[in-house]
């Protein structure tokens, strides 16, 4: 249902694998993904995570069949559970790259938006089609989409339920890069390895500063940056990174 493998000592690949239902997220998938994320978070050797889907979809949304007869309180629980998992992905220390191989609709688009960097195959399609099912997005799409693409475009996409292609998604900065399908994993791995080659303390603190800072005032956000900046000066990586520069050699960061 969901596979976790290590592509090298520091890189984990998570593959959502329920291709017969286009990797639709049911309760079981959410629970399993939550366990896998916990595993990845506690494995200190893993520095970067790539998340992808098997088959022609990344994730075609929450499981519509499972939602059909939900009572309001069950729908609320389901929504809160998905939101909590996606928030965990968004705020976990290590960077997460979404390698979007196909449909990223509804909950799939919301999952992708909780990742730090989004790389998509030319075949991908994106959208929040929930209003056509009689519901709004429920895994925080109403919150993340406007933060990423701006209020007006987010409202257009959510109100119309329009499905857009990868080129359009890149234009509105919903995704970082568009690549040929066969290039998706190699390109994502190359970017992951580039991140892995840097100081993971510095990368992780940068992620924390960006995430926390965008939600508060510039003054408070800058203070967070200064605090994390200062913390780096208590790390070996800062000494090694700067010494390596001055000695004109490659840094050997902590692993
Ligand atoms: N849920 C359940 N099953 C799905 C889903 C889904 N989201 N998407 C596809 N499937 C199933 C199909 O039913 C089909 O099953 P079967 O073979 O048994 O008939 C199989 O996957 C293959 O799908 P299609 O035959 O439809 O494949 P196509 O290539 O013809 O179409 C599409 C691909 C366009 C992606 C189409 O499948 C589609 O429109 N899927 C639904 C997209 C959608 O509306 N997603 C949003 C769902 S709602 C949501 O995500 C809300 C999130 C917040 C929830 C909060 C909880 C309260």
TrEMBL record:
UniProt enzyme class: lyase
Pathway the protein takes part in: Lipid metabolism; butanoate metabolism
Biological processes, Gene Ontology terms: fatty acid beta-oxidation
Alphabetized Pfam families for the sequence: ECH_1 (PF00378)
Highest taxon of the lineage: Bacteria
Keyword field: Lyase
InterPro entries assigned to the protein according to its UniProt record, in alphabetical order: ClpP/crotonase-like_dom_sf (IPR029045), Enoyl-CoA_hyd/isom_CS (IPR018376), Enoyl-CoA_hydra/iso (IPR001753), Enoyl-CoA_hydra_C (IPR014748)
EC number: 4.2.1.150
Catalyzed reaction equations: a short-chain (3S)-3-hydroxyacyl-CoA = a short-chain (2E)-enoyl-CoA + H2O
KW Chloroplast (keyword) present: no
Any one GO molecular-function label of the UniProt entry: 3-hydroxyacyl-CoA dehydratase activity
Subunit-level organization: Homotetramer.
Family: Belongs to the enoyl-CoA hydratase/isomerase family.
Protein name as catalogued: short-chain-enoyl-CoA hydratase
The species this protein was found in: Alkaliphilus peptidifermentans DSM 18978
Lineage: Bacteria, Bacillati, Bacillota, Clostridia, Peptostreptococcales
